[in-house]
Design goal:
With about 475 residues, this protein is α+β, with helices and mostly antiparallel strands. Helices cover about 40% and strands about 20% of the residues. It contains 13 helices and 13 strands. It starts with 7 loop residues before the first strand and ends with a strand. This is Parvulin-like PPIase.
């Protein structure tokens, strides 16, 4: 199985000041995901008994006043206690990922989901321990240190200070690291050896890829909420509230991991690169009309509702111009605090006119000094790392040309000048070994969902 650490990602859009830092909660181990809604006739791991097999009455009488939505804050899982502090500290990570803007009613739903996640995490650690799999604390510490360096560019002490400042702790994060490493190792021992993808299956898949050359692939994020006919109104209302939070700036990855009921939840709802034929018609039709960065839903399915987020799209086995590497110069001016809008507009207009007279990148620095502007250069910017609104504009520029001015009174006005462009090579697609590994990972993940479902079924859980 391939692994990738993406637990707390602080990733700027580009080094030219074009976007803010965003905190994203994602798992330590990031295997390929399989969507709840993907059409996969070969998947035999998701069979469940129909409701009729339970012999349920059509109009049951409920005895007592038990509220099925009321849960205690803590639990004991096979004798191991999950405390309220455990829940609060893990919840703080999610709240931080959403900029702290979580209304009280949403906070309660998140708290219940965090408790469910902690129960699963506890079951995974317990099962690994029963299989004599121990995760060395030194390995956990090394991973924690790698997060601090790769995602924060600081030492572990700085990360510990950040976590404490948001109401979480290094202990909570390290437990998550331990849980996911333990589960990965358990799957490697108990599941992966029994997964087999034949050479014929791989060759068939490679032939399909070649036949699909030039067709579009979509990288889609999904939040899937299961529902019966009786629970659909309540689940729809919940989906609409989640949609409101996402439109308000909430992290799709964080919400997918906490709420989605498909196996892709473990990787923040990311379905990976798929073709629309792999989706049911209810999802493929709106997905075909989406632009990267767009969010749609709730979309009604026979088994529930889905929220879709188009992360990106591309053409199969075709070079994507957005993978071109650019050499850019950013020329920008700032406005003193309190500058009237009319005055700022006049300066921006004069700045735009002056920039048009600059004769290529070689003259940009001197022209910037004359304009009282700041000039920043970067020779390693991929087109797809720029804001979506700028990508098409940049792709149409010739060397020495600039974009139209953009910005605001608060952030200043800037232009980007194209100084060079290295076009991407034609995409050849995965080789035989890579494709076989991807197919094996996908099957391991499907088996993992069944494995975890069995652990939940056999667990003794007490709510305090």
């Amino acid at each position: 199985m391939k692994t990738g650490f993406r637990l707390l990602s602080l990733a700027p859009r580009a080094a030219l000041g074009l976007g803010a830092l965003a905190v994203v909660i994602a798992p330590v181990v990031a295997p390929l995901a399989h969507a709840q809604t993907l059409l996969d006739p070969a998947d035999d791991t998701s069979v469940s008994a129909p409701a009729s097999a339970l012999n349920l009455p059509a109009n049951p009488t409920i005895f007592g006043k038990a509220d099925p939505h009321l849960r205690r804050a803590t639990a004991i899982v096979n004798g191991e206690i999950i405390t309220g502090t455990d829940v609060d500290q893990r919840l703080a990570l999610i709240v931080s990922a959403n900029g702290g803007k979580v209304p009280p009613e949403e906070l309660e739903r998140l708290r219940l989901q965090v408790l469910r996640n902690l129960i699963d995490e506890t079951l995974q650690i317990q099962e690994a321990k029963a299989a004599n799999i121990e995760i060395d604390e030194g390995e956990v510490t090394q991973t924690f240190e790698r997060v601090a360096q790769q995602n924060f560019g600081q030492n572990p002490a700085a990360l510990e200070k950040y976590l404490a400042g948001i109401g979480s702790s290094s202990g909570s994060l390290k437990r998550q690291i331990k849980g996911e490493l333990a589960w990965q190792r358990l799957l490697r021992r108990n599941v992966q050896p029994f997964i087999n993808v034949s050479d014929g299956e791989v060759r068939e898949m490679m032939d399909r890829l070649k036949a699909a050359k030039g067709t579009e692939e979509y990288r889609i994020g999904e939040i899937y909420l299961a529902a019966t006919q009786e629970t659909k109104p309540q689940v729809l209302a919940n989906a609409q509230k989640i949609l409101e939070q996402l439109k308000g700036g909430g992290s799709f990855v964080a919400y997918a991991r906490q709420y989605s009921q498909s196996s892709s939840a473990s990787v923040g709802g990311d379905l990976g690169w798929i073709r629309l034929a792999q989706l049911p018609p209810e999802l493929s039709t709106p997905a075909a009309q989406m632009s990267p960065g767009q969010l749609v839903g709730p979309i009604e399915l026979a088994s529930g509702y889905s929220l879709l987020y188009l992360i990106d799209k591309r053409q199969v086995l075709t070079a994507d111009p957005r993978d071109a590497v650019l050499s850019l110069k950013q020329i920008s001016i700032a406005f003193p605090k309190g500058t009237p809008e009319k005055e700022a507009a006049g300066k921006a207009s004069a700045f735009a006119a002056a920039v048009k007279t600059i004769k290529g990148c070689g003259a940009a620095d001197a022209a910037g000094v004359a304009l009282g502007a700041t000039v920043v250069a970067n020779d390693q910017i991929r087109v797809r790392d720029l804001p979506t609104a700028l990508q098409e504009t940049i792709l149409k520029l010739s060397v020495g040309e600039t974009t139209p001015p953009f910005g605001s009174i608060e952030d200043g006005v800037r232009v980007l000048m194209l100084c060079g462009r290295d076009d991407p090579k034609v995409e050849s697609g995965p080789n035989f070994e890579q494709l076989q590994s991807q197919m094996e990972d996908d099957r391991v993940n499907k088996r993992a969902q069944t494995y975890l479902r069995d652990l939940r079924r056999d667990a003794v859980i007490e709510y305090n």
